[in-house]
């Protein structure tokens, strides 16, 4: 009986991970309609799904979703090859795993916000370093030109990208978890109590999202 239960839980976990990977890939496809910044920096919504998976199932789940989706992306729609794969994994893991680790330690709204902010900051810092090291290789830019872009281009781009993904995570986490619970793919909350919707948090999140979207449009030269 114990082995049967273990297999059942494992199958449920795999099904949830597979579904999140599929949703993350669709989010990446949707992201391709957004304008790029400086001709090669693109906004990516798949991190929203990855961090939600990390919040639900822990940081290792975030790593698994990141690697699977990045591999599928490299083999299907990406033109950046292995270097793009590495950059995708680094950026998504820095954001999602940091958020998931902090949220796991403090399973509350405060923990979620701190995790998302920490994820944005770590991802931004990490991408400054790796864009300085890698961009000259796959874009053919002189390293001095890339260094000159770090503060005026890469820094605001990653902060805005992270801000959009963080605010979308705050908005979408509860509806997605609720849908997965109704599909019996995620266990009910151990407390069993339904939390009331915090409309103030939703309103602030929507304002932040609108702000980050406007900043993204400015960076992309649309407005």
Strand content: under 5%
The global form is globular
Structural class: mainly alpha
Pattern of helices and strands = HHHHHHH
The helix tally amounts to 7
The main β sheet shows up as: none
Look at the structure and give the mean pLDDT. 88
Indicate the low-confidence ranges by residue numbers: 4-8, 190-194
Proportion of helical residues: over 70%
Radius of gyration: 18 Å
Question: Ends: how far apart?
Answer: 62 Å
Model description:
- By secondary structure, this protein is mostly helical.
- The protein is 79% helix and 0% strand.
- Helix 1 runs antiparallel to helix 2.
- The relative contact order is 0.11.
Summary, kept brief:
With 223 residues, the chain is an all-alpha fold. The protein has helices at residues 2-31, 46-57, 59-76, 81-105, 109-139, 143-182, 199-219.
How would you summarize the topology of this molecule?
Layout: H1 2-31, H2 46-57, H3 59-76, H4 81-105, H5 109-139, H6 143-182, H7 199-219
Provide key terms for this protein.
single chain; 223 residues; mainly alpha
